[in-house]
Amino acid sequence: MDVFEAIKGRRSIRAYKDKDVPAEVVEKLIEAARWAPSAGNIQPWEFIVVRNPETRRRLAEAALGQYFIEEAPVVIVVCANEVRSAQGYGMRGKSLYCLQDTAAATQNLMLAAYAMGLGTCWVGAFREEEAKRVLKVPDGVRPVAIIPIGYPAETPTPPIRRSTKQIIHYEGFY
């Protein structure tokens, strides 16, 4: 699949078929994620693969009742290792670079999933401390995205996008 086709075709999927996602497929998704760029090649990402229905339910509750999360056969929680980033870049690494790096990894994962016929949704609205407790995430590591993954049971329409004329600025913010 052409990268532009994947970028334009990917949608947030919130309904999944009752069909398992094989472990080899999940590993391919994480392989795509780990090839994302990162500041200083520090690679501060950590990936928690969740298949247990009770854990998925608790994550859905932590995500402010977004119960489609528990309906996906697998959920990957992308975490940012702040300590790892801070060792290379101090406070800026801890507060910014690790988030940028995990965002790039998350996008790679989601585009790879789409190219493989899977649906995903980037869930960022969740109670972080609750998610940490559910997943036993240590201090210095932050869950930054909950990604339910499964075979899509819906086909959302493309969202409206701002035109390039509205978002491009040359030589400054004019």
The CATH class label is: Alpha Beta
Oligomer: single chain
CATH topology: NADH Oxidase
Helix content: 40-55%
The total number of structural domains is 1
Q: Compute the separation of the termini in Å.
A: 37 Å
Shape: globular
- As laid out across the biggest beta sheet, the strand order is 1-2-4-3
Tally of individual helices = 7
- The pLDDT mean sits at 97
CATH superfamily grouping: NADH Oxidase
Order of helices and strands: HHEHHEHEHEH
Kindly name the structural category: alpha+beta
CATH architecture: 3-Layer(aba) Sandwich
Based on CA atoms alone, the radius of gyration comes out at 17 Å
The main β sheet shows up as: 4 strands, antiparallel
Can you lay out the helices and strands and say which pair or pack?
Elements: H1 3-9, H2 23-34, E1 45-50, H3 53-62, H4 68-71, E2 74-81, H5 82-115, E3 119-120, H6 128-135, E4 141-150, H7 164-167
Antiparallel strand pairs: 1-2, 2-4, 3-4
Can you describe this structure?
With 174 residues, this protein is an alpha+beta fold. It has one domain: NADH Oxidase (3-Layer(aba) Sandwich), CATH 3.40.109. The protein is 45% helix and 15% strand. The chain has 7 helices and 4 strands; from the N terminus they run H-H-E-H-H-E-H-E-H-E-H. Strands 1-2-4-3 form a 4-stranded antiparallel beta sheet, with helices on both faces. The radius of gyration is 17 Å and the shape is globular. The relative contact order is 0.23.
Q: How is this structure best summarized?
A:
By secondary structure, the chain is an alpha+beta fold.
